[in-house]
Amino acid sequence: MRRISIFGSTGSIGQNTIDLIRRAPQDYEVVALTGGANIALLARDAREFRAQIAVTADESRLAELRDALAGSGVQAAAGRHALREAASRPADWVMSAIVGAAGLAPGLEALSHGTTLALANKESLVTAGPLLMGEAQAHGARILPVDSEHSAVFQALVGEERSEVERVIITASGGPFRTWDQARLEGATLEQACKHPNWAMGQRITIDSASMFNKAMEVIETKEYFGFLPEQIEVLVHPESMVHALVGFRDGALMAHLGAPDMRHAIGYALHWPERRDLPVARLDLAKLGRLRFEAPDEVRFPALRLAREVMATGGLAGAAFNAAKEAALDLFIAQRIGFCDMARLVEQVLAAMSARGELASTGLTLECVAQADEVARARLLDGAQVKA
Ligand code: NAD
Ligand code: MG
Asked: Which residues are noted in the entry as NADPH-binding (predicted)?
């Protein structure tokens, strides 16, 4: 029996993880499940798997969670401290699938106990990559990538020397606005941005895919996780989302990873690593597919990609500021208070202002200085949005 916890169990990645566990419940002992507002789903899963504890991030929902778990023997808890406490409980494998910077603290906590962390929460690597990787190293804990591109790179590197890698190419579907011109992009609506052509995911990452902020974050994630140089990391638009990433070696060979766009592949790979097990994902019929398309990304229409390069060049707290400003801009777009292209414009302004004031420099990342940069960036973004309005 493996002891596992799922942070963000009620979300898209969380439910795909539950789907895999449900197929072989005898193999797992569930320690903690966590969610937000969807108390019914959290309680249902916690009861089904007889979890030790269920935690909602929303403190105002604790009574509701207690009621939903009454008589089940599952402990109910709420809030940030409870999330950290749950992450400190002995486990063999922890899925980090909270969305946003809120995923950082529980991930760090799990790593500090030497627990293997399956990392879907890319925000923690963008925000505080050196902190997360350092914590893993200090405690002999392993981080396994769950983002599909990073799982693909990880798999392409099995048995290879890192020093022989020339470049890494991560693919992007291009999202629903791949072919839209700038004028049309300015008027893109929330509803349009929420329609991903290939992947079914949470709302926030779906919109980030449309703006290419998701790919921008993934470029930084590639640098932080694998330690490649920014100039070794390329983005390639690939509308079919069948090739997830390619690794290029010094002899010119490219190793590509292909699979149906189904997150259960990357989650299952991290769950069973270093073994491979049967997974309930569709098998590709390449003859039926006929052809795959590839295009260069457009950093003019999708400036997030250019901003990622600037963030990597700046280092320090730039990742924390970039992620937080992006999260705040996304909140405003979801609230329909700013336009689609305003997101990148406002994030760029925040980075420039913080850089000019020396607020991105750091002499070693700590959770405290990262949290402060995060707070400043969110406040600056709101100010910037008000000026615009
Ligand atoms: P989602 O919105 O579907 O689910 C997010 C989960 O986090 C939910 O359980 C929610 O209750 C919880 N949550 C939200 N805010 C929280 C907070 N402040 N504190 C604690 N918990 C909170 O998101 P998702 O699509 O499953 O994505 C989860 C993470 O995985 C993100 O970092 C995303 O970038 C990454 N990811 C997702 C996919 C995908 O296919 N969905 C693919 C690659 C990477
Ligand atoms: Mg991805």
From this structure: 10-13, 36, 38, 121, 123, 202
